[in-house]
Hints:
alpha/beta; 9-stranded mixed sheet; DNAb Helicase, Chain A
Amino acid sequence: xxxxxxxxxxxxxxxxxxxxxxxxxxxxxxxxxxxARVIGRTFSNYIKTFKDIPTKRVxxxxxxxxxxxxxxxxxxxxxxxxxxxxxxxxxxxxSKLKQAFGERRLDVIKEKVNSATNDVxxxxxxxxxxxxSIKAAxxxxxxxxxxxxxxxxxxxxxYIEKLKNPDLGRGILTGYSFFDYIKNGLRPxxxxxxxxxxxxxxxxxxxxxxxxxxMQNNRIDMMxxxxxxxxxxxxxxxxxxxxxxxxxxISRMADVPEYAIRDAxxxxxxxxxxxxxxxxxxxxxxxxxxxxxxxGFSVEQLELTFEDIKSDYTPDVIFIDYLGLMEDVDxxxxxxxxxxxxxxxxxxxxxxxxxxxxxxxxxxRIDPTNRKSDIKAIGLHRIGRSSLIATHATAIIQIExxxxxxxxxxxxxxxxxxxxxxxxxxxxxxxNFSKCSITDKLYNVEAATAWxxxxxxxxxxxxxxxxx
Length: 468
């Protein structure tokens, strides 16, 4: 870390007022180097919890199971040992830090503008994300106020622009048409939870979403000059070793049986598919990275790893397989409460980094032979161990499990929570678990809803809305 970052972090270890100010208004968003950001976030979490300054002994004790973090903490405290900090210099140091942060993010915006492709919507979303980070780091108000009278012109203009470009305002599509219609794509800071029983396909569904986010409309038989827009994916696997997760991924991309890859029993056509998938991965300009981490992986370790990844590329979407195998090292509560509070920290991680996060949780089991009981099979009451999970999630998808599920070719998922609108809706798609595949069946919006756009009245509508 540089001397300015060191000075600010030093200040919050010796002055309680400055520590409270840092955790409330400045926090780790301002810090530029990975080491400083991790230490700053660790300090902020401690200050928010105990309303006091952190000390080396207490932090090392709290994070005793995270050796990398303990090494960073020890190194920092050793570097300031014997030094003093003048409280009167804090405001100046913070202002310089804000200036340096803003300049760094503006450089990123310039690079995005200079390297912009025909994907106007994607470029605008990336630039807006950078501007939001500058505003957040500079402590600008986190709310928007405007009377509806003053917003009508903006609304009208936005609608007319949407008529011209239907992709305007759309987030990152998952490739599942029903979910994409309901959600309108993944947004920065979204936390999407996949809920299902053991063996229902939670991890496979998560992996399929990750692949479709990564590839978008590109195909493995395309040549480099044919590639369109895709997204960078960071896939944290706590349940499956790296090779198993990679084999599942390439099986899905190549549309070949996973066991044929595992046992080296590919036929000629299947081998060609795998070869195409490998060439695609080599030539495709976006990254799909599998990070094999142990059970008990914490949000603090997620922060460290994320900062390390960003030295190579910036992930557009984070996948964590899965939530129940993570650990909250700062939390000594019962498991049910710990998991809910861990979900809150992951949601905060997504908000800080303006990145959508998708993970999975286990459902509480019900007796499959007693489906006529009072316990409904679908709903938020089935979320395992903690209702706080649903509180923090933007949307929750529940996988339906039926009797003799293995005999069914379809795969039914329900949206049981959607913070932005409709919930309690379901859609049936197709599954082929032997090829690690869960594929979409197009959701017919007109057939499923009471309204139909009918003939194209865009120009007439634009004229009507455009009148004052």
